[in-house]
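Lecture notes, continued. The same structure-token format from the folding unit now serves as the input rather than the output. Read the line below as a description of shape only.
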């Protein structure tokens, strides 16, 4: 497995430039030729062996021979170093260009991520608005359904015979009030209108108003439904969408009327 991975990887070794290889090759050939020439000169001078020269002459010979080689390889080193520095500058320039390209790519990625975030934010806002609208419409539908229940209860109750008893004299009257003869749409307003017409001057501190048990039970249910409708109409989530209906349908007036009745008292 390791051999496969090693073989699958690209060769990352960096070879010498062609100019450097050529310089090394020329220097090597020149070194060999120079040493060969020095050996030939030595053989010409000393036919009888190496003892033809004194030690000081040997020093001068070797110094002259190898100082030339030292100068040659010093020049080669300078040339190689100059070539290496030039290649490094090229690599640095390429690296700088690559960094610039990477920065542009990263900038584009950041812009794309920002666009995606803005899109997600817009989608979230749309979903939030749709959810708010659905909740609002659900509350409105619930309000409309509650109004229909109130109208149905008043229409079902018909005309209710109330008992009005004076707390001081004990006198009793039996007015009939209701919405049984009105259409369904105006059942609530007609009930309020008739109550205000037949009992315009009643002082609730001086009289006691009761209703038959069946009608009292109906009016108690209507009272609870009215409280529910008013609460729904004034819910902040509906932005007072149905508050106008409370005024138009006279729900507040009907709520006050029912609150003033003694719907739990016994009716003879």
């Amino acid at each position: 497995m390791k051999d496969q991975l090693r073989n699958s990887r690209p060769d990352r070794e960096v070879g010498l430039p062609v100019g450097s290889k050529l310089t090394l090759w020329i220097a090597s050939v020149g070194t060999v030729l120079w040493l060969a020439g020095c050996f030939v000169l030595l053989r010409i001078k000393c036919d009888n062996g190496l003892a033809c020269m004194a030690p000081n002459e040997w020093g001068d010979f070797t110094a002259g021979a190898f100082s030339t080689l030292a100068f040659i390889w010093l020049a080669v080193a300078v040339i190689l170093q100059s070539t290496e520095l030039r290649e490094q500058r090229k690599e640095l320039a390429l690296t700088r260009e690559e960094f610039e390209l990477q920065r542009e790519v990263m900038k584009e990625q950041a812009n794309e991520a920002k666009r995606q975030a803005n899109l997600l934010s817009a989608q979230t806002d749309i979903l939030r608005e749709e959810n708010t609208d659905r909740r609002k419409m659900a509350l409105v539908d619930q309000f409309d359904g509650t109004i229909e229940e109130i109208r149905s209860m008043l229409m079902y109750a018909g005309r209710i015979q109330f008992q009005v008893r004076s707390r001081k004299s004990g006198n009793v009257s039996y007015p009939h009030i209701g919405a049984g003869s009105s259409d369904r749409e105006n059942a609530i307003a007609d009930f309020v209108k008739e109550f205000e017409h037949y009992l315009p001057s009643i002082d609730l501190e001086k009289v006691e108003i009761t209703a038959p048990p069946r009608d009292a039970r109906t009016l108690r249910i209507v009272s609870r439904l009215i409280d529910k409708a008013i609460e729904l109409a004034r819910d902040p989530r509906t932005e007072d969408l149905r508050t106008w209906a409370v005024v138009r349908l006279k729900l507040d007036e009907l709520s006050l009327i029912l609150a003033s009745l003694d719907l739990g008292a016994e009716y003879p």
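Point for the exam: Helices lie at 2-8, 18-45, 55-157, 187-198, 213-233, 243-248, 251-260.
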